[in-house]
Design goal:
heterodimer; A: about 425 residues; flat; B: mainly alpha; two-stranded antiparallel ribbon; two-stranded antiparallel sheet; globular
Chain lengths: ~425, ~220
């Protein structure tokens, strides 16, 4: 049995596996996480071959790890006739090629022109309608009108991108004065949610076409828009959000706590900022069906226009939106724990796995950003890895719950005063990991 | 994704790797794109930016140099220890360091794609149709004996072909963590050596390791 354990089964993308969407990838793994299996191992006696289990897991991680997989499009178990999802472009049979060519004709010559026309029309309508509504005096009529305009344009926008959305549990829709949090896969998330309700958006001010749309929206509703430099100031962000939700007349605010687009197979760690301001949190789970089109925006690979073009030339964007019951932070709970609770609820509803890692900032093209903070709680230690600009070499930080220090990494042992002072432990030799 | 990486890996190279490791063509190209994505430094420099040269001739010259760089890049693509340490799941693996060491050949600090594949080949499952063919050729990398040898090397740091009590204790400490005291760990190590050792030198040689691993396999 150990030798079957010791072999990693590397599968191609076209192998059929039941219910395998969250687990598809280059490697066929067992279902348990490493923590559960480690716990299971300790119940038996130690034997020399135990080392094989860890080395297998290690090499699996080398061949493909759970985190970087989430920043590229989800691998499909069977091909959906889009050449962009077929990683191994090889000839299967001429019948399939014929079907594929017919598919291309339908998508590029039939669906796409129709969608582009609809998109142009809807943007013109948005600009026109918001200008008209913006002329109205401030009051209830204006609010109602602007809500209708927003929802209509968002619905049009969703349709022109080939979206087919199923809303579930609409009785739990976010109310005024609340914060709506959702998992983030694509900028289309905003459109999809806006077609069923009105939100104030928190986001960065863009230029170009997106900036035009933002400006027209700002005429009628109160959105919270930031400059790029302001986004880094977390206190400012928090203050603005707090002011916004305090005013009960204002629309619920829409926040994506992951901070970046993930490929919809898992939910990564939520930033705790939006969970600290208080107020009611309305979680929303959004799950796209990958068989009809890939909604994930890989911002390192595709620009916005290329992405929109890809979306318009896929079959459709089919998604399910679940409105979940509102949650409130309990008195003794800290923001991180609350964020994890919300994250677990969203992931459970959407059928996505929960990853304890934080996604890094993906502004540039490199796959591994320079500064990244991982916060992983395992069953025996708390490993905190920090990015410290002072130390260029890798260091490992391990703090066990009872403050004893395990795992002296035999080659590396460095001090990082940054983390030591944050955790209030002074200059105790913590071993720190720098990515 | 797959098609871009395969243009940088020549067909002859793929054939050679296939013969040596037993992976299929598509698996090799997939692993090559994984290899190149781990190698962060090279990726950044080659694909970033565009040439801002005013002079067309200069532009042509530089683009020729880039092509040359691309061609030499196949062999120049190298991984260092930091590239492996950036993988989060490897960082929490108790044997992470030793596994990373296993990728690097003796005394060297970098590994190329061939070496990378050679190490990963140890983890390929043994297929039934392989057992009968090619008895005269060199042993495949994923044979039972080579797998056991890989595991043996994880224990044996000083490469004297014996697992001493100290080496066993080190690995035990890494795998087990803080919650077990030194004496308990020592007794576990002693018991293991006692059970496996046959020639009475209180160290485990490769042959004894193979025998004890086989015995545990039967127990399962």
């Amino acid at each position: 049995m150990y030798f079957t354990l010791f072999g990693i089964h590397i599968v191609r993308t076209t192998v059929w596996k039941e219910d395998s969407f969250p687990h598809a990838g280059i490697i066929q793994r067992e279902e348990n996480s490493m923590e559960e299996e480690i716990a299971g191992q300790r119940r038996g006696r130690f034997n020399l071959a135990d080392v094989m289990y860890f080395s297998k897991k290690g090499c699996e991680a080398v061949a493909e790890d759970e985190v970087t997989r989430r920043f590229s499009s989800e691998e499909l178990v069977s091909w959906n006739l889009l050449s962009r999802t077929n990683a191994n472009l090889h000839h299967v049979s001429w019948q399939l090629t014929v079907v594929w060519v017919i598919g291309i004709l339908i998508r590029y010559c039939l669906l796409m022109p129709f969608r582009i026309c609809l998109a142009v029309f809807s943007i013109l309508l948005l600009v026109l309608a918001t200008t008209v509504v913006g002329q109205f005096p401030n009051g209830r009529v204006k609010c109602w009108l602007s809500n209708q305009v927003q929802m209509m344009c968002a619905t049009l926008g969703v349709r022109c991108l080939g979206g087919l959305v199923h809303f579930h549990n609409r009785e739990n829709r976010p109310q005024e004065g609340g914060i709506c949090v959702a998992n983030h896969t694509t900028p289309l998330d905003v459109l999809i949610l806006a077609s069923d309700g009105c939100y104030s958006l928190v986001g960065q001010a863009h230029g170009g076409l997106l900036g035009l749309i933002q400006k027209s929206c700002m005429q009628t509703t109160q959105h919270v828009l930031f400059e790029r430099s302001e986004m880094k100031d977390r206190h400012l962000v928090r203050k603005k959000i707090r002011e916004h939700i305090a005013d009960k007349a204002k629309l619920p605010i829409l926040i994506f706590p992951e901070g970046t687009c993930i490929n919809n197979t898992s939910v990564m760690m939520f930033k705790k900022g939006s969970f600290e301001v208080g107020g009611t949190i309305h979680p929303v789970a959004i799950k796209y069906d990958p068989r009809f089109g890939d909604a994930f925006w890989n911002s390192a690979k595709y620009s916005m226009m290329t992405y929109v073009f890809n979306v318009m030339t896929s079959w459709a964007i089919v998604c399910n939106v679940w409105y979940l019951p509102p949650m409130v932070k309990e008195v003794e709970e800290d923001a991180v724990h609350f964020a994890n609770r919300v994250k677990a609820v969203i992931a459970a509803r959407g059928g996505m796995s929960v990853l304890p890692w934080k996604p890094g900032k993906r502004g540039n093209k490199s796959a591994y950003p320079k500064h990244r903070i991982f916060d992983y709680q395992s069953w025996r230690t708390t490993i905190k890895a920090c990015a410290c600009s002072k130390f260029q070499q890798p260091v490992l930080c391990g703090v066990s719950p009872d403050r004893l220090f395990p795992v002296t990494n035999q080659n590396q042992k460095y001090f990082c005063p940054l983390v030591a002072s944050k955790s209030g432990m002074g200059l105790i030799p913590e071993l720190l990991f720098v990515f | 994704m797959g098609s871009r990486a395969s243009t940088l890996l020549r067909d002859e190279e793929i054939e050679e790797i296939k013969k040596e490791t037993g992976f299929s063509h598509s698996q090799i190209t997939r692993l090559y794109s994984r290899f190149t994505s781990l190698d962060k430094g090279e990726n950044g420099t080659l694909r970033s930016g565009g040439n801002q040269c005013a002079c067309l001739l200069l532009y042509l010259l530089i683009s020729k140099m880039r092509i040359l760089k691309h061609m030499t890049r196949i062999n120049m693509c190298l991984l260092h220890r930091e590239d492996f340490q950036r993988i989060p799941e490897l960082a929490i693996n108790p044997l992470g360091d030793r596994i990373i060491n296993a990728f690097f050949p003796e005394g060297e600090d970098q590994v190329n794609f061939r070496g990378f594949m050679r190490t990963l080949a140890h983890f390929r499952p043994i297929e039934d149709n392989e057992k009968s063919k090619d008895q005269n050729g060199p042993e495949p990398l994923n044979s039972r004996s080579n797998k056991l040898h890989f595991a043996f090397r994880l224990y044996d740091l000083d490469k004297d072909d014996k697992i001493s009590r100290d080496e066993l204790l080190q690995v035990l400490r890494m795998m087990v963590g803080v919650n077990i005291s030194d004496e308990q760990l020592g007794s576990i190590a002693d018991r293991t050596i006692q059970e496996a050792d046959q020639d009475g030198d209180s160290a485990i040689s490769f042959a004894e390791f193979v025998k004890s691993a086989a015995r545990f396999q039967k127990e399962m």
